[in-house]
Design a protein that fits this description.
- This protein has 7 helices and 14 strands.
- With about 250 residues, it is an alpha/beta fold.
- It has one domain: Ribonuclease Z/Hydroxyacylglutathione hydrolase-like (Metallo-beta-lactamase, Chain A), CATH 3.60.15.10.
- The strands form 2 sheets. Strands 6-5-4-3-2-1-14 form a 7-stranded mixed β-sheet. A 7-stranded mixed β-sheet has the order 7-8-9-10-11-12-13.
- Strand 7 and strand 8 form a beta hairpin.
């Protein structure tokens, strides 16, 4: 069975360098899952020709707009354009349903009261508690990132593979736990050496490199200073549209 990860966005909140905001597509056996859903996600999906109807579940690391702000547009598309009929699950930290619906209502008043022709389910994930979404098993781990709700790193297990994802966070001892034994660890590196609360600098990450027992590390959430230094980095940076097959 073919497992494919496609980068729909690996930029920072400001879209620096023209990159889309955070979103990863994980597909296997006809099922597609979105990991985070930044506000530019629908544009990225159109550009990379991904059918919204293929999405079975959206899993969120935390509730900042560049990680969940695409959901109102995905849900509007499901009702008005794509004419969705199959169920859709949105899973995230506590407070996800209230934040998503409040954002929808702010952007499009009255939209949350519309009758849906499909089953929409919100699920709240608890730290260190695995949840199964079809073949995908997701285990969230608490990290350090203030967003008005808990912020998570994720271990994603599917088809015998493990993909770890830091979400947004400053360095924390949680990260080696999340990354241990993973085929791939997608890790934030917002800045090169500048220490900013709630975010991770590349230099800090490299000082802990030996603690990360995983096969491969790819960097995401890239600021301009990281993009400018990309050729001199020891670790690989992701690119929008990039496809990784397992």
């Amino acid at each position: 069975m073919s497992l494919e990860l496609q980068v729909l966005g690996c930029g920072d909140a400001m879209g620096t360098g023209g990159r889309f905001q955070t979103c990863f597509s994980l597909s296997s056996g006809g099922d597609r899952y979105l990991i985070d859903c930044g506000s530019s996600t629908m544009m990225a999906m159109r550009q990379f020709r991904i059918d919204p109807l293929e999405i079975r579940c959206v899993v969120l690391t935390h509730l900042h707009g560049d990680h969940f702000g695409g959901l109102p547009f995905l849900l509007l598309d499901a009702r008005l354009i794509s004419k969705r009929r199959s169920p859709l699950v949105i899973a995230g930290p506590p407070g996800t349903e209230a934040r998503v619906l409040a954002t929808m209502e702010l952007l499009y008043p009255g939209s949350t009261s519309a009758r849906l022709p499909y089953d929409l389910q919100f699920l709240e994930m608890e730290p260190e508690t695995p949840r199964d979404f079809g073949r995908l098993r997701v285990t969230p781990w608490t990290v350090v990132h203030q967003s008005g709700a808990p912020a998570y790193a994720l271990r994603l297990e599917i088809d015998g593979h493990c993909i770890a994802y830091s979400g947004d966070t400053e360095w924390t001892g949680t990260l080696p736990v999340v990354a241990r034994g993973a085929d791939l660890f997608i890790c934030e590196a917002s800045f090169y050496e500048r220490e900013v609360p709630n975010h991770l600098a590349y230099r800090t990450l490299m000082s802990h490199r030996q603690e990360l027992e995983c096969d491969r590390i790819l960097l995401t959430h890239l600021s301009q200073e990281m993009q400018d230094r990309e050729e001199e980095l020891e670790l690989e940076c992701l690119a929008d549209g990039q496809i990784i097959r397992f």
